[in-house]
TrEMBL record:
InterPro entries: TAT_signal, WD40/YVTN_repeat-like_dom_sf, Xyloglucanase_GH74. Keywords: Carbohydrate metabolism, Glycosidase, Hydrolase, Polysaccharide degradation, Signal. Belongs to the glycosyl hydrolase 74 family. This is WD40/YVTN/BNR-like repeat-containing protein.
Length: 719
């Protein structure tokens, strides 16, 4: 990750206005490198943190995600169009969307507040401005940080177009108070008169909403926690506002213009996790009276907060709210048609259809109505068209009874592992964050088997295939029913290892399998970074023995031809270790290689003994043809972040990498064993941080699969 210091000049948010992101000064794909890029379809897979229907344009809606950018709904095609894939490697932190805003008076205008992390090592946030519904963007860099993937990411919206003046925008920040722009987001200054004082760490401004000519701001760092202004300059606490644990943090708010009521959802923590209590309150904005309209009070054995809230633009007094973090009874939506006097739980009558995204059955169970529900939107032109986001998908209904995912085109997986088999039904297996391993029998539809079961994993930590026996595949990860499994049918069905080392429960790491499938090497890395020696099994996981000479925490790599050979790279020492006795013992070979970063990767070229490539980030790319005895640095690129192989145009496999031959980090292909490279992505297809995994297809020349951190699996083919 690129580091940058937080820059706050005397507490004032300084800005710089940059050119259109779509016109950044980097080279396009060279001649001969033109590719068509598409998502491998899974469907959703990540936390949908916000949804907005445009109040004046039927069928126009936007969605934001915590790490995967923003999307626009295409009503004609019934799918989402990604709007931020142009964000490049150096700007990876901007792929998380903290907040979004539309202009009711100017339907083509869209604003995004972007910035994934507010930590010291992350870059500052930015505001993206579009005059064409997100087709192109202008960008203003901020000197404050935003946190689209931190606690509180489902609150909001924190960005608002002032309904009295389309040139005026407001932006609530986590640590730097309230900002104001009077030139449609081109420049920003602190809002004078806003009385709340930022805490660090803290939530700061959690929401902004217009109610008639008044503006309201939620505050997440202590009482009072709700402010308003009538003139845009003087802010005051809202009188009579609710207090207590159940109303500690205002999460979201919605205004019913017919009844002049403001509905506010509250929780005892910003969420999406950690909420144990919450409430819903209605404010009569004319008379100033507050009313507690909480549908169900959390209690012992049924703890939760409240999240999303939406009002019906066509039916006065109709409002919908969501629970959040309700694990015992499962989250629900409550709907009221009498301004919150009585409520109906929509979960109780819901019929869920997840046939388009079978992974939502979570390994065979019936699908759940949802969890982490903080994004909630009601179509202003259709009272029965309701959508809500969860930690994995976006559900929608047209009749308040039948629900199905509405995620075509929206892909947010964080991809950790990719294997493209040389034979069999599937061209791709994937190991993902949060949703385990999947068998992609088709690239254009969600895997019919859903998540690999027996056992079900959360995040996958390892995925490997026996090169000479491709029907044998192994996987590792975080799971309640075991942490390792094997398949004898290429990844279609699985069985847990008969035994596993004690370390596996708390430190499951990467795994390798020998070319003939006879030996497994499993490495272990704890979540706190503690590393351990690998364990070896030669009976399919029935028993394991520690390999004391294996460099702790290293990723084991199997030779694709010789089943007796394994390799491992000690990133601390910059030394390549090798085994020639089936992984029983390891000995140091080449040393003096780049060190100090755990992301260095050794990849073995398919079909060749001892042909190793070391992808060493900004230290470049190295190659050994003698099993790691010696390495030669390639001069054709200066940076290499991840590397893989596919079917070649000639005798040697095609080599793919995310790396750099000039100033631009790009997706590259070499057809001459790394002597030269062709850029195969372009400025519109960059997807932020893409340094985890890449692999080519061994059966289709030119096809490449790329793992992203928030935009799922991208696959490209020459055009």
């Amino acid at each position: 990750m690129r580091m940058s210091r937080r820059a706050v000049l005397g507490g004032v948010a300084a800005v710089s206005t940059l050119p259109l992101l779509g016109a950044s000064p980097v080279s396009a794909a060279p001649a001969g490198g033109a590719y068509r890029w598409r998502n491998v379809t899974i469907g959703g897979t990540g936390f949908i943190t916000g949804v907005l229907f445009h109040p004046a344009v039927p069928g126009l809606a936007y969605a934001r995600t915590d790490i995967g950018g923003a999307y626009r709904w295409d009503e004609r095609r019934a799918r989402w169009t990604p709007l931020t894939d142009h964000i490049g490697w150096d700007d990876w932190n901007l792929l998380g969307v903290e907040a979004m805003a539309v202009d009711a008076a100017h339907p083509d205008r869209l604003y995004l507040a972007v910035g994934t992390y507010a930590q010291s090592w992350a870059g500052n946030g930015a505001v993206l401005r579009s005059e064409d519904r997100g087709a192109t963007w202008a960008r203003t860099d901020l000197t404050v940080k935003l946190g689209a993937n931190e606690d509180g990411r489902g609150t909001g919206e924190r960005l608002l177009v002032d309904p009295r003046d389309s040139d005026t925008l407001w932006l609530g920040t986590r640590h730097d108070g309230l900002l104001r722009s009077t030139d449609r987001g081109a420049t920003w200054t602190p809002a004078t008169g806003f009385p709340a004082t930022a805490r660090d760490p803290g939530q700061g401004v959690t929401l902004l909403v217009a109610a008639g000519r008044a503006l309201y701001a939620g505050w997440g760092d202590g009482a009072p926690n709700l402010y308003r202004t009538l003139d845009g300059s003087t802010w005051e606490p809202v009188p009579g506002q609710p207090t207590g644990t159940a109303a500690r943090v205002p999460v979201r708010a919605a205004y019913d213009r017919h009844t002049r009521a403001l509905y506010v959802t509250y929780a005892d923590a910003p969420g999406p996790n950690g909420q144990l209590d919450g409430s819903v309150h209605r404010l009569d904005t004319v008379g100033g009276r507050w009313t507690d309209v909480t549908p169900a009070a959390p209690g012992a054995g049924d703890t939760f907060g409240y999240g999303g809230v939406a009002v019906d633009a066509r039916r006065p007094g109709t409002v919908v709210v969501s629970t959040n973090n309700r694990w015992a009874a499962v989250d629900t939506l409550y709907r009221s048609t009498d301004a919150g006097r009585t409520w109906t739980s929509l979960k109780d009558s819901a019929v869920l259809d997840v046939s388009e995204t079978p992974y939502l059955r979570w390994g065979g169970d019936a699908p759940k109505f949802g969890w982490w529900i903080q994004a909630l939107a009601l179509d202003p032109y259709d009272s029965r068209h309701l959508v809500y986001g969860t930690g994995a998908t976006l559900y929608g209904t047209r009749d308040l009874v039948h629900w199905a995912p509405r995620v075509r085109g929206l892909e947010e997986a964080s991809v950790r592992h990719l294997v493209s088999p040389p034979s069999g039904r599937a061209h791709l297996l994937s190991g993902l964050g949060d949703i385990g391993v999947m068998y992609h029998e088709r690239l254009t539809s969600s895997p019919s088997r859903g998540m690999a079961a027996n056992p079900v994993f959360g995040t996958a930590t390892g995925l490997a295939q026996a090169a000479a026996e491709p029907s044998y595949v192994v996987r590792t990860g975080w799971g309640d029913g075991g942490n390792g499994a094997s398949s004898t049918d290429g990844g279609q069905t699985w069985a847990p290892f008969a035994a596993q080392p004690a370390l596996a429960k708390d430190a499951p790491g990467p795994i390798a399998v020998s070319a003939d499938g006879a030996v497994l090497l499993w490495s272990f890395v704890h979540g706190d970074g503690t590393r351990y020696a690998a364990h070896r099994s030669d009976d399919g996981g029935a028993s394991w023995a520690e390999v004391g000479t294996f460099p702790k925490g290293a990723t084991p790599v199997a030779d694709p031809v010789d089943p007796a050979r394994f390799y491992a790279y000690d990133t601390d020492a910059g030394t390549l270790y090798a085994s020639t006795d089936g992984g029983r013992t390891f000995a140091a070979r080449a040393d003096g290689l780049p060190s100090g970063d755990s992301q260095f990767k050794v990849v073995a070229a398919p079909g060749r003994v001892g042909d190793l490539w070391l992808s060493a980030k900004w230290n470049g790319l190295y190659r050994s043809t003698d099993g790691g005895v010696g390495f030669t640095k390639l001069t054709s690129c200066w940076a290499s972040y991840t590397l893989g192989f596919g079917k070649g145009a000639a005798d040697y496999p095609a080599v793919y990498q995310v790396g750099a031959t000039d100033a631009t980090t790009a997706v590259l292909r070499s057809d001459d064993a790394g002597a030269s490279w062709t850029r195969i992505n372009d400025d519109r297809h960059q997807w932020g941080w893409t340094g985890e995994v890449i692999t080519g297809d061994p059966r289709v020349y030119g096809r490449v699969y790329l793992g992203t951190n928030g935009r799922g699996i991208q696959y490209g083919e020459p055009v």
